[in-house]
Amino acid sequence: MINYNRFTLDNGLRILVHEDSSTTLAAMNILYDVGSRDEDPEATGMAHLFEHLMFGGTALIPKFDKHLLIAGGENNAFTNTDITNYYITLPSENFETAFWLESDRMNLLDFSQRNLDVQKSVVIEEFNQRYLNQPYGDAMLILRPLAYKVHPYRWPAIGMNTGHISNVTLDRVKDFFFTNYAPNNAILTLTGNIRTDKAVSMAKKWFGQIEKRNVKKRKLPAEPVQTEARRLEVERDVPVDALYKVWHTGPRTGKDFYTLDLITDILAGGESGRLNTKLVRQKKLFSEINAYITSDIDPGLLILHGKLMKGVDIQHAEEAVTGVVDELKTKYPSAPEMEKVKNKFESSYVFANTSILNKAINLSFYELIGNTGLINDEVEHYRKITRDMVIEAAGRYFESCNCSTLYYRTAGAIK
Known about the structure:
Number of domains: 2
Strand content: 15-25%
Largest sheet: 6 strands, mixed
Shape: globular
CATH topology of the largest domain: Cytochrome Bc1 Complex, Chain A, domain 1
Low-confidence stretches: none
Radius of gyration: 23 Å
Mean pLDDT: 96
């Protein structure tokens, strides 16, 4: 059982504290309720760019990492479709350094053109390396707008293209900060060797004086139900063809989330997953194949993708994939297979939460989606999935009219 206490400061900052005296370390996680879904479609990539800008320093602390290294700490951050998340671990006796650093940059950044230009260059280079110059790297740039037509999940967290990033102005950066980076739009989670009373006292000292800000109310367009199959073929300079298939799913808090997550484990849960067993080892159609659910807060996707063996016809490979997926609609998974994937989930989840940092990140996210108790209940939700639930969910979601398919072919393959 992971115990925690919850507090809220007068400025709206939510605070979660989990004490763990078994370690000499402490972790701080700050989740800002802003991701790429909150961007202007004409200026995508802003949330991710801002993640980089947050490490550019302030007037008081020009070099964020310098002071953290002196205190023996480590830090990093990530941005996705829904959130931007910052975290620090350091020896507990130096924990106040984390409060000082994070409260300072929540209060006010160094809004200089020089800093903005530097971070734009860094993000554009990252975009090029990860998405444009990497084999199969642009697949999600193609697949997301194929699956989504109106919802902002139609672009990845890094943005639609580098032009959006290069055109960002300093005024737009300032507006993004003051309407999203605010105590009343953040969750501060503290875990490790720190007492709750001391943690709350430090939070009041360092964050309590930051005023509330006028956070924009989220009004996102709902994605219409997909009513017909969508298909697209592209050619790229890659060694072998690749197949991508996505199906729309419900939100992270939806009733089918755990069932669909378990289905992806049945399909692609390691070497013994059905896709790997049947299509990689037995039929030798793919060199690798995987499936996962995006876990987005708004209705997301179940994504299946694989690289074909050379010489394999991509339509034949797709038919084989459909056969494996469709089997879930009519044939119960065996009791041992269900138990295997449940046990694997439980062991990985419990092991992950032995880390104070993982506990801090998970507590923050569960608080955001309105059910902090999931930190202790996730395994039980997974355990409650029945074979009937698997068949029902597979039949409802794995429909051709709910699917978008991308043939990612080698150059010269399309006639």
